Amino acid sequence: MYMDNKNRSFSMIADVDGDFHDLTNIEMPDIVPILAVRSLVLFPGVVSPILIGRESSMTLIRKAEKKNILIGIFTQRDAEVEMPIRSDLFDYGVVGKVLKTLTLPNGNITAIVQGLGRIKLEDITKYHPYLEGHVTNMPEEEPDKRDVEFQTAMEDLRQSVSQYVSMSDEIPDEAQFALKNVTNNIMALNFICSNLPFSTKEKMKLLQMDSVKERLFNTMRIVNREINLQNLKLDIRNKTRDDIDEQQRNYFLQQQIKNLQAEMGNESTPEKKDLLEKARMKKWPEDIEKFFYKEADKLDQLNQNSPDHNVQLNYLQTLVNLPWGEYTEDDMDLKRAQRILDRDHYGMEKVKERILEYIAVLSLRGDLKSPILCLYGPPGVGKTSLGKYSRSSSHLRRSYAWPYHQEYPEGRFLESRIYSRRD
C-alpha cells in the first residue's frame, strides 16, 4: 500500500476491457486540487491505495470522494518535505479520481485512487486548505492495435518481469499473478512502470515520455539491467557461500583428524607444546617461522612410537634452540685469551696455538669470513670444556650453545659448536 510519506508495495490489479484511449482521454479543468505523494509515481490506468497522513491531504481526499472531482497526483522530489511548494514537486503527474476511502483506527485515511491521463504542473495557485494548481493535459502517443513489434516486445517484457520478480527479494511472488491478469498491453506496461522497484527519477523519465512505445523499450532496458544486477548478486552470493562451505568443510575435516589422532594416541605431546612455547618467544625471520610451524604440523601426523617421530622432534628442537637474532660482541685480546687458555687447559699446546691463530686472523681481517674450527677426538679429551670455557668466558666471549656429535668411520667423532654470530 502506498502512503503519502514513505511506502513500497504493489498496486492493486486493474484492467481495461475496451480501448485504453477511452480511459485516459478525459476532459478536465485547468485548475485542479493537487495531492502530493512522497514515493509513488502513478501511471495512467493504474489503481493504487495511498495512505493519507497530512491534514491538508485528508481534507482534499474527503472532498474529492464526496463531490466526485478529479485531482492531480504529483510526486515530491524530496520525500522528507512536509509542506511542499511548486519546486518540491516533479513537473509531470497524472490526473486521477478517488474510487474509495477507508478510515483507519488511528485517524489516517487509505484512499484508493486510479490514474487517468498525464498532466503537467504549470504552477501552484493555492496552498490552503490544500494545494491547487494550474495543469496542462499531456496526451500520449499510443501504438496501433495491429503493431506486431509492440505486441512482441510486450510479450518479451512480461517474461523478463516474471524472471526478475522470481529473482528479486523486494517484490512478492503475487506480482506475477497480478501481471498475468492484466490483459491490456498498455495497462500492463504502466502497471510494471509504477510498481517495479526502479528509482523515482527513472520512473519520472518513463512517465514524461510521450510515446508509449518508447516507454516500453526504455522499460525493457531497465528490467534487463536489473536482471543482470540480480544475476551478479546471485553469483557473488554463491561464491561467498562456496567459500563458507569450503571453510566449514576444512574445519570439519580438521576436527575429524584431531579426533582420530586422539584415538590413536597422537595428541600433541608435552614436547611439542614446549617447542611451540619456545617458538613464540623466538625472533626469527618470517620465512623460518612459517617453515617451523609447517614442520611442527607434520609432527601430529606421525605416531609417537615411530622412529620418524623422534627424528622430526629432534629436528624441530634443533631449529628452536638455534640462537636466531641473538648477537654477542667479540673480544680479540690475544694476551688475555692465551692467559685463560693456559690457566684452564693444561697441555694441548697445538690446540691452543690453533685457537690463538684463529683469533689473530679474525682481529686482522675484521670480519668472520674465516675457516670454522673443528675439534675432533675421542670422548673425554676436553673438546667440550675447551669450547665452553674458551668461548663463553674468555677471549671471544660468545654465548655457548650446545655440542653436536656425529660419528665417523674408524671410531672417530666429530664435535662442533654452535655459537651466536656477531653483527
Q: Can you describe this structure?
A:
The protein is an alpha+beta fold. The protein has 13 helices and 10 strands. It is rod-shaped. The protein starts with a strand and ends with a strand.
Residue-averaged pLDDT, rounded? 79
- Share in helix: 40-55%
In order across it, which strands form the biggest sheet? 2-4-5-6-7
Give a count of the beta strands, DSSP E runs of length 2 or more.
10
Distance between the termini: 78 Å
Rg is 45 Å
SSE string, helices as H and strands as E: EHEEHEEEEHHHHHHHHHHEHEE
Assembly type of the chains comes to: single chain
Strand content: 15-25%
Total number of helical segments? 13
**Shape designation:** rod-shaped
Q: Which runs of at least 5 residues are low in confidence (pLDDT < 50)?
A: 1-9, 399-423
